[in-house]
What we know:
This protein is of the alpha/beta class.
Amino acid sequence: MEHIVEINGISIRYEQQGHGSPIVLLHGNGGNHHTFDGLIERLAAFYTVYAPDSRGHGESGRSGPLSYEQLASDIACFIQTLGLHRPALYGFSDGGIIGLLVASGWPGLLSRLAVSGANSTPKGLKAHVRAGYRLLYAIGHCERIGMMLHGPALTKELLAQIDIPVLVLAGSRDMIREEDTRFIAAQIPYAQLCILPGEGHGSYVHKPEQISALLLPFLGAEGAR
């Protein structure tokens, strides 16, 4: 069921399904909550699933500048406004970056965090990927692409502040450099790292049976009915 909540001066559209402990799903750059349609159905058997469209994406509001910090503030406010008690969070690509910022910037807000295909800086993207985005930005000046070229800035110090269990996922053929994925996992005290052989940036994310099989063991029984 779709809902709208007003936060930080904009309308956020989100999908809500299921019963049990809360989990928030965050899509990637240029996507929307429909990225997770199949996954939502699987998780809703155990959790109350909240899948918002980020600011400037899907059917959510588009006012104000886009930055990873602003998107993280939106999600923290989303969780607080809905009164979600220490939800788990899974973020894909930019959604993973946002999740890492929320976990570090709002201690105690989340219970667990899973991220896939997140990068710590623009240089975490493979060189040919960055070159492609620079060309696209030069042609269209898309704000969402500009955000990827200028951020994020996930430092050692910031990542070290995350004090909850974190699952860090990436494909061996990801557009994120494996060294960067390993850097992120190495800085977080309670992180598990899983590099998936043969998988690309989102290939496994779009297979509900595969991504749910990775997430559910990590999430444990906390959300089971």
